[in-house]
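Methods — Computational structure assignment.
A single polypeptide chain was analysed. Its primary sequence is given first, followed by the predicted tertiary structure written as structure tokens.
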Amino acid sequence: MLPKPYRHHWMDEEIEAFREQVRRYVAAELAPRLDGWRRQGYIPRETWGAFGQLGFLLPEIDEAYGGAGAGLAYQCVVQDELAKAEFPAITAVHSIASHYILDYGTEAQKQRWLPKLARGEMLAGIALTEPGCGSDLQALQTRARREGDEYVIDGAKTFITNGFTANLLVVAVRTGDAGSRGVSLIVLETENLKGFHVGRRLDKLGQHASDTAELSFEGMRVPADNLLGATEGKGFAQLMSQLPYERMLIAMPAAAVIERAVELTLEYTQQRKAFGQSLYELQNTRFKLAECATLAHIVRSFLNDCVQRLTDGHLDETAAYMAKWWCTEQQCKVTDECLQLFGGYGYITEYPIARLYADARVQRIYGGANEIMKELIARKLPL
């Protein structure tokens, strides 16, 4: 078994009790239905209503807006437990989108949307990526022009997590000239919204229970009051300031998946026989698992430090970038090593290790490609 984790400073008894509540609910109510959701390609939005009613969707949001005011560590725990059960980052995206409203919305916008998001009455997504614009958000082309009390929006987005199931989207648009100063964020309530179209649900390598869709906007009109923060041209700065939190919600599942992969492989190799002995009795197997278990321990220790700094309000951007790229790289490395020890069975999707392997690959791409993370880290290094 993996080294017994110690209780880090941020993991107090209340958070541990909350973790256990989330774990029991996921195991009893969500995990048994996951295979069916994978086959249909999405988890119905209504599924998250009970999750929200129990306080699991947005525990970190202020009580005034429907949350528990419990701190960011609680959301990290939710993502940890969902990842261990093989759930994709649906609620992580929901939390990130909600934080844009919490941190930059007017009081009227917060009162309008956050309680519904906390209760699970609305599911949120973030529409940034465009067909010709990935990590380079300054190059986005979707445009919003002001006409009286409305914005008219034209353009297209792709690779949008929750794009099919979400009924609230935070959308990056161009309201001004080229470059970062011309970017704004507008919030859409998508149900029965004329000019809003959901295109294909994309057929992905992994993350099959998470819908990823193409979106288009054709003369779509929304109230000018939906501009986040009520001031144009602030969108790029708003996006950049949320990145440390977003990166952490990608790194946390990496640790959970690494630990799960090692546990599954240890169990399998102890049972599987080859050449008259268990696979685990072969030195190569033991050495590989020793390497993977060590990486699991280091990743978790690094993330514990990052979570502590996040909850203290001192997590710097560079550490978050490091956590995102390095932890997801180790996730892909460990799931690959573990799959190899399963042999042919590791390539069969009924085995969890195959799903963990396929699901892991996108972690190095979304939320800012790892090459971008390294570039951002390098810019902060001393000359």
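Note: The chain has a mean pLDDT of 94.
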